[in-house]
């Protein structure tokens, strides 16, 4: 399974609604990819130390509940935080069936990434710098949370993903990025699973590659847990490049 953009810890998240679905999916899977922004530290309502502890506890419980499933955590732009990364390093050492990567995971002909690589000439360094910049902003004020909640309640956020991220343009930009890092169709990639754009996309084919996105667990938006057939490559192909 692949899931992204739960945005847990943020008041706009509807992720808790899918708790049973996530556990049912994990119980039936041998590979479960958590594709970034599972937690939202940028809009969390609690201090980062406690929020990171909550996130690590959530992940540990999930992995321990299904020891036959291999969990892979990929960072996104809302959960890329130094305090949380320290927790992930500890979990990687302590939990046998949980690993993590900064940018992407390659499994056979499938590649998984968060999707915040839609700009031009994105590298590991520029992506990390942008994610870090996001989390060095000032703490959000109460009025900002209230304004955001009001916008979500009014449904003003619903058309934004469709206007900002048209499907064909997203596919073209992702494919351009994947080719730049050596994981395009020429390298055997046939399916791309990604998040970030807060839209559901299933089996959209662009230049011979299929693109899949599960939307976002934010009130008023569509959200899906995506399933994919498991391939058994000779070795796991992962990297610290975006």
Put the structure in a nutshell.
Helix content is 34%, strand content 18%. The protein has helices at residues 19-27, 48-65, 82-94, 124-134, 142-153, 160-164, 167-180, and strands at residues 2-3, 31-34, 70-74, 98-101, 104-107, 110-113, 191-194, 200-206, 209-214, 237-239. Helix 2 (48-65) runs parallel beside helix 3.
Question: Overview of this structure, please?
Answer:
With 242 residues, the chain is α/β, with parallel strands linked by helices. The chain has helices at 19-27, 48-65, 82-94, 124-134, 142-153, 160-164, 167-180; strands at residues 2-3, 31-34, 70-74, 98-101, 104-107, 110-113, 191-194, 200-206, 209-214, 237-239. Strands 8-9-7-6-5-10 form a six-stranded mixed beta sheet, with helices on one face. A four-stranded parallel beta sheet has the order 1-2-3-4, with helices on one face. Strand 5 (104-107) and strand 6 (110-113) form a beta hairpin. The longest helix has 18 residues, at 48-65. The radius of gyration is 17 Å and the shape is globular. The protein starts with a strand and ends with a strand.
């Amino acid at each position: 399974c692949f899931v992204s953009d739960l945005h847990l810890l943020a008041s706009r998240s509807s992720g808790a609604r899918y708790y049973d679905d996530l556990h049912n999916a994990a119980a039936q899977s041998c590979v479960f990819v958590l594709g970034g922004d599972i937690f939202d530290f940028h809009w969390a309502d609690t201090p980062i130390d406690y929020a990171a502890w909550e996130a690590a506890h959530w992940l540990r419980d999930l992995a321990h509940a299904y020891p036959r499933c291999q969990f892979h955590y990929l960072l996104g732009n809302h959960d890329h935080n130094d305090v949380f990364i320290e927790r992930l390093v500890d979990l990687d050492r302590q939990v046998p069936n949980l690993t993590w990567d900064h940018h992407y995971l390659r499994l056979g002909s499938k590649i998984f990434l968060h999707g915040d690589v839609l700009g031009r000439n994105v590298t590991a360094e520029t992506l990390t710098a942008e994610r870090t910049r996001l989390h060095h902003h000032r703490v959000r004020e109460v009025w900002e949370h209230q304004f955001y909640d009001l916008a979500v309640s009014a449904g003003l956020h619903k058309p934004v993903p469709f206007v900002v991220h048209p499907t064909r343009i997203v596919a073209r930009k992702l494919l351009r990025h994947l080719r730049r890092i050596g994981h395009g169709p020429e390298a055997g990639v046939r399916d791309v699973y990604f998040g970030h754009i807060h839209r559901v996309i299933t089996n959209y084919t662009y230049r011979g590659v299929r693109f899949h996105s599960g939307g976002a667990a934010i009130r008023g938006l569509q959200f899906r847990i995506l399933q994919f057939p498991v391939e058994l490559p000779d070795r796991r192909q992962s990297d610290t490049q975006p």
